[in-house]
Design goal:
This protein is of the alpha+beta class. Helix content is 27%, strand content 34%. InterPro entries: Acyl_CoA_acyltransferase, Bact_Acetyltransf, GNAT_dom.
Length: 174
């Protein structure tokens, strides 16, 4: 019998495992295609930052049995749901789990009455931008400078963020 993957909101007890997962996915030395280690120094996140995110939004976890294999941060902002910090364990990448997490974010947005998913992605990550565009996201607005006032790492070069957006699927029209 195959054990299914399932999502649930993270709790404070999940923070140590989330810190490990997110830092491995974004800054790890494994050959995961989501790594940003060539662009940024330092960890992607820490326990204090994740604790704050749990106060301002929700971190949806993706589990297989008792193993944390992915997560995504979601925060309602009016008619939009901000989606961030999507991470899949490097050992589990290329199995459709990122797509599953995007689906969970879409479902969450629909439940919250949001009409759009929105996010920012590093312009220096054309492969990642293309992946999101294949999943229905479109670039909107002007590029934004990478923030240096939060705990997301220290840029090794000038970086900019692109804002992406897509309509929530299955949403009721307002």
């Amino acid at each position: 019998m195959t054990v299914p993957f399932f999502t649930r909101p993270a709790t404070v007890a999940d923070i140590p495992a989330l810190v490990s997962l997110i830092n491995q996915a974004y800054r790890g030395t494994e050959a995961g295609w989501t790594s940003e280690g060539h662009l940024l120094d330092g960890p992607r996140t820490d326990a204090a930052s994740l604790t704050e995110l749990l106060r301002t939004g929700t971190i949806l976890t993706l589990l297989h049995a008792d193993e944390l294999v992915g997560c995504v941060y979601v925060q309602p902002q009016g008619t939009r749901l901000y989606v961030g910090m999507l991470a899949v364990s490097p050992a589990r990448q290329a199995q459709g789990l990122g797509r599953q997490l995007l689906g969970a974010a879409n479902d969450f947005a629909r439940q919250q009455g949001c009409q759009f998913l929105t996010m920012t992605v590093l312009e220096a990550r054309p492969d990642l931008l293309a992946w999101y565009e294949r999943h229905g996201f479109q670039r909107i607005g002007q590029p934004e400078p990478f923030p240096t006032d939060h705990n997301a790492g220290v840029p090794r070069q000038p970086l900019v963020l692109l804002r992406l957006e897509k309509p929530v699927t299955g949403a009721v029209e307002a």
